[in-house]
Amino acid sequence: MFMLSSIFLSIAKLIDFVITLYIWLVIIRVILSWISVNLYNPFVRFLLQITEPMLSRIRRWVPDLGGLDISPVILIFGLYLIRSILVAVLEDLAFTLS
């Protein structure tokens, strides 16, 4: 049971890390949208490819607010919510099994 507990705890930490990293990528994208950047820069292209699929799905459901894009805020809030629930459940399961 200790091994299963360690696996669940490791998965919880991995999910926490991945979601936190994605949140930071979204924040960096928002900051880069405020300044003039070279869209052919490999890092900027990577950032757009990683974040655009999630943001475009949210933009379909959010009404246009006159040039103000709140989809990153909604995405970050949703990711925080998913992270807190999912990681808490996995950590509780791991501690229950140990």
Structure summarized in a few sentences:
The protein is mainly alpha-helical and 98 residues long. The protein has helices at 2-34, 42-61, 71-97.
Radius of gyration: 17 Å
The count of β-strands is 0
**Unreliable runs:** none
- Give the total of domains: 1
| Helix proportion range | over 70%
Query: β content, as a range?
Result: under 5%
Give the termini distance in whole angstroms: 6 Å
Order of SSEs: HHH
Structure write-up:
The structure is a single chain. By secondary structure, the protein is mainly α. α1 runs antiparallel to α3 and α2 crosses α3. It contains three helices and no strands. It has one domain.
What labels would you give this structure?
98 residues; 3 helices; 82% helix; mainly alpha; elongated
Give the SSE map.
Elements: H1 2-34, H2 42-61, H3 71-97
Helix pairs in contact: 1-2, 1-3, 2-3
